[in-house]
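Quick one before lunch.
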Amino acid sequence: MIRITREADYGILLMTYLAQAESQALSAAALAQQRHLPLPMVSKILKTLARAGLLTSQRGALGGYSLARPPAAISAADIIGALEGPIAITECSEEGHDGCCSRQAYCEVSGHWPRINQAIFNALQGISLLEMSRPDPLQPVQFHPLRQTVTANAADHPI
Amino acid sequence: MIRITREADYGILLMTYLAQAESQALSAAALAQQRHLPLPMVSKILKTLARAGLLTSQRGALGGYSLARPPAAISAADIIGALEGPIAITECSEEGHDGCCSRQAYCEVSGHWPRINQAIFNALQGISLLEMSRPDPLQPVQFHPLRQTVTANAADHPI
DNA sequence: TCTATATAGCACTAATCTAGTACCGATTTC
DNA sequence: GAAATCGGTACTAGATTAGTGCTATATAGA
Ligand code: FES
Ligand code: FES
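Model of the FE2/S2 (inorganic) cluster complex:
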C-alpha cells in the first residue's frame, strides 16, 4: 500500500516534537517517554537523523538532540529520505544497478518511473516540518480531490 | 524507501502493454512472454486487476484480458491501489482500526497524515496509463525540481 | 579525578511481509 | 469432448522490518 517503514513514521513523530521545543535539546529518553515509543527504537532513529544532518547532538550529561535547521527548512521528504534512503519507488529506478534494470530491453515504461518518483518526491518535499508540527490542521480528515483522471472515483480510495 | 511491491510494479508493466494493444484481448501467457515476467505472477496479477474492474476477462480458448476503460481513464493510482489496497502510508492513517491508532492520545501529527497521503495520491492520480504507455517520454531521466523547501538540496536525493 | 548521564556505532534475533509456485474448478472455442 | 484459458485459494521460501543489546566515547558536575 505504498507505505513507509515504522522507523520513518516514528521519525516524523519525533521531529514534530522537537520542532515544538525548537532550540532546547531533548534526550532520547525524554522523547521516548513523551511520544510513548520504545526507547531503543527512538535512540536508533535519532542517531540516524543526526548522522543525516537533520539533528545536532550533544553528548554527555544534559546532552540531547535538537533540530539542525528551522522547522520550515525541513521537509517530510528530508526525514523519510534520511531514514529509508533515497526515494525510489521501484527496483528499476534505483541507482547503482549499473544504472539500469534487467527488464529494460522489454520495457517501455522505463522513462516514466523517474517521473512517478519525482511526483511523489515533490509531494513530500512540499510538506514542511513547520506545517506538520502545528497542533491542529485547518483541513481535518476531509477529502479534497485536486487532479483526477476522467472516470476515477474518489470514493474507491478511502485514503 | 517508499516502495511499491513488485506486484504493482509488474502490474504497471502489464497494463502499459495492454494499453498499446488497446482493444485486442491478450492471454496471460502472451503477456508474460512479451514482458519476460514469470507466468504465475502475471496470471495472479491479471486476476486481481480484473476483479478490481480495470480489466475485462474472456474465458476459454482464444480468451484473454483487455482494458476495461480507455488508457486515459486509468491512472497509476488506480493500478497501484488495486494491487496493494488503499494508499495509506502509515499504520495510523489506515481505516478499520476502529478509526484511530493507539498513539493518537500523544500525537499531534495525526491530522497531517491524511494530507500527506492525499499529496501522494494526487501525484499518482495525475499520471494516466496513456502517458505511461507512450513509447518515450518527452522528459527523459533529467531532474526537474518544482516545489522545494528552503534549504533542501535536490542533489541529496538522486531519485 | 570520579561518577552519572547521554550519544555513537555495531551486531543480533524474531516476527512479518513479499515473491513466487501449485493445484483444482469453471468457461469457452473448435 | 478436448484443448485452451481464466477464477480462486492455499502454500513455501526468502527478504525485510521491528525491536533489542552491548560496548565505546564524550560531557557535566561533585
Ligand atoms: S522496469 Fe526497469 S526498465 Fe522498465
Ligand atoms: S501516529 Fe496515529 S494518531 Fe498520530
